[in-house]
Each structure stands twice: as C-alpha cells, then as structure tokens.
Amino acid sequence: MEHYNYRGKEIVGIDHGFGNIKCRHVVFRSAVRAYDTEPPMAADALFYDGKFYVVGEEHKVFVSDKSQDEDYYILTVAALAKELEFRRITDCEAVLAVGLPIQWIGAQKEAFRNYLMQNEMIEFRYHEQDYLVRIDDVQIFPQGFAGVVRRLGDFKGLNVLADIGNGTMNTMLIKDGKPMASRCYTDKLGVEQCIIRMSNELLAVSGHSVPYDVYEDFLCRGGANLPEKYTAVMQKAAEEYSDSIIAKLREYEFNPEIMRLTVMGGGACILRHFWTGSSDRVRYIEDICATAKGYELLALNNLKRHGRT
Question: Which CATH number is correct for 4-142+290-306, 2.40.50.140, 3.30.420.40, 1.10.760.10, 3.30.70.420?
Fold first, then answer.
C-alpha cells in the first residue's frame, strides 16, 4: 500500500475538486448534507462534531472561494475518514497536501490554509470506528502542475498542460520540464459547462432533460444507452465543448504543430471521446487521483528540504 509518512507524520493529499474529492486511494463526489440524527438509509454516514454527514450523493455548486462555507471543511474530514480507513490508520499526526487553481493561489492560499487548520485536533467516527487526527500542517500547491510533477521528464520541448476539472480549466506552458510561471491561466471552463450546454440543448430540442448521472456517464464512456434523438444532441454539444477547449488553448498560443498537449482531469475523457481534431500530439492522463498523489510528493519534498521534525 503506497503512501508517504515522514518522521511519523502521515502525508494526506486531497484534491478538493468542484465535482469530486480525490485522495491517493479514494474518490467521492463533492457534496455534503448534515443531519441531527443518524440517517436510516445512509450506511456511509460520517459522525463529526455532534452531527451526521452524508457525502457524495450529489455535486456541490461551483464556488470561486472554497472557504466561504463549511462544506469543504466537512468534505476534508470525510476525505481523511475514507483515506485513513483505506490505510488502516485510526490515530495519527497528519500533514494535509492540497491545492488551488493556478491563478487563484496567490489571493486565496493563506485563507484556505487557515480554513483547513481551524481545528488542530479532529475527532470523528466512520463505519463504527473512532478516529483521532492531529493536523500538523497544511501545504498548498498549484493545481495542474501537481498532477504531472512525477513525470516532468516526459515534457521535452514546448508543452501545454490542460487540467480540466468540473469547475475550472487550469492551463500551464511547460518548457523542457520547467513550468513557465508567466504562462499560467485559470478559466471557468470545466466539465460542468459541458453538462450545462448538453442539458440546455436537449431541453430546447426535445423538451426533456436527463439526470446529471446520465450526462456524466455519457461523457466518460463516449456514449449511453439512450434514444438516438438524445444522443445526437448530446454528442453535438460535447463536440462543441471540446472545440471550445481547443479554441481557448489557441488563445494561449497553443500550436499543435510545434507543441504537445497533455490533458488531465475529468475533461480528459471528453476530449478523448469527442474532439474531432488530430490527436497525434495529444496525450491523456486519466488517473483521476494524479493530482492528489502529486500534492503528497511535493509536500514530502518540502518536509525533507526543510528538515521538519
């Protein structure tokens, strides 16, 4: 079971996506609902601070500042519960390794760090097991870059990295394995925009829509068991969204003749299935946990570099 522990501290990477929360070993949807009493139908409920929480049943509405309410804090506790259960650890000191969109990290980093460190000791119960976690530190890194930090040696010459999450697309130019700090961008052009486009067009054409899960399944698999009148509209919308992604990258001087494009995040499967352009110089990273793993490696390197005890 691979994970990092530095001098007795568990390093837990958490990718706080707008669509899903990802750790090294677990993934669940970014949604939370509180209950005063234990929900009768929720075997996966988390008990924390006197309340029961059910996570993962829906998606959280996009917010530009994740510290504006308590949802992402509860989702962080849930991430610890699920990841530590996988690691078979119930009592530990932890370093949280997390991230923010590239263009927002400067303005939001300190507030997000304080938000996640609001309690030094976290006690909770999950699957009838009690947990105690002492938060030693929170380290924050740029999204996108973290997802490829373990493979920068593959980025020879000029490269464009597009990390397409549910809420945002983070774009970074990388030259010979080194990110170009002046060529980093964040756009609200995530997968949710594609689903909104599909839903609106399907409603306009047929007068009907379909559940959110059906859209997700269609995009991930490249199709769905639906009537032709539905799939034709959804196919067209997904292709148009894919074209809009490439158009935005071209605004940032992406030239497929001289650059390689690397796409990661939830949007990688959309471009793989629905982009009609040439993909000779495009590679896809479809490990949804790649960014969380990258956060852990970056945090480990930081701890070693500064000789934290």
Answer: 3.30.420.40
User: Hey, do 4-142+290-306 and 155-277 end up sharing a CATH topology, with the first three levels equal?
Assistant: yes
CB 237 within 8 A of CB 192: no
Q: What is the 3-state secondary structure (H, E, C) of the chain?
A: CCCEEECCEEEEECEECCCEEECCCCEEECCEEEECCCCCCCCCCEEECCEEEEECCCCCCCCCCCCCCCHHHHHHHHHHHHHHHHHCCCEEEEEEEEEECHHHHHHHHHHHHHHHCCCCEEEEEECCEEEEEEEEEEEEEECCHHHHHHHHHHCCCEEEEEEECCCCEEEEEEECCEEEEEEEEEECCCHHHHHHHHHHHHHHHHCCCCCHHHHHHHHHHCCCCCCHHHHHHHHHHHHHHHHHHHHHHHHCCCCCCCCEEEEECCHHHHHHHHCCCCCCCEEEECCCCHHHHHHHHHHHHHHHHHCCC
Length of the chain: 309
pLDDT, tens only, 247-272: 999 999 899 889 999 999 989 999 99
pTM of the complete model: 0.90
CATH code of domain 155-277: 3.30.420.40
| Residue ranges per structural domain of the chain | 4-142+290-306, 155-277
Query: Could you report the per-residue pLDDT of 93-116, keeping only the tens digit for each?
Result: 999 999 998 888 888 899 999 999
Q: Look at residue 80 in the predicted model and tell me its pLDDT.
A: 98
Spatial CA neighbour of 283 closest among 266, 260, 306: 260
Phi, psi of 262 (to 5 degrees): -115, 125
